[in-house]
Amino acid sequence: MKYVLDFDDTLYDAKRFKQQVAADGTAHLLFTPEIWQLYDVQDYLHTDTVDWLASKQQEDLFILTAAMTSDGKVVMAYQQEKLRCSKLGAVVFEIIFSAGEKGVETAEIASRFPPSEPIIFIDDKIEQCLSVKATVPQAHCFLMVRDPSVIGEAETVRSIDVVHSLADVDAKIREL
Ligand SMILES: [Mg+2]
Fold it and tell me: What's the gap in Å between 91 CA and the centre of ligand 1?
């Protein structure tokens, strides 16, 4: 089983970080690599991230992160420095930076393994889940919704299973 994991708002709490930046008046440094001299990325990982990654085999873990702002600006240097400072490179097999739809890179990852190898994709963006579903139809995609109040009781969004934590992913995989 191979896991392809989004970073922002899946493993890392981007919303909490941006709130802190706004409170500190450092928003002018947002999306520059220099901002990581002021903040420790590890302080903003979701609380289950490190232990969950440690519960898996390193060779099964891929982080696939989009180096783009929500309005579509590519911020590669910022994102690369963020991931470097997260130190998660030491516990995953590979970190891949995307500047578009993740279906392309996920298909490339899946192509490295036999078709029988289960591929698990987790992302907080429904568009990315649908992109992966289109290119890797056998992948199990999970929409990560860290804040359950956002979508209420919905268990799926556009046929993609919703999870609220990494433990939820393990529980749903056991049901497959
Ligand atoms: Mg994300």
Answer: 19
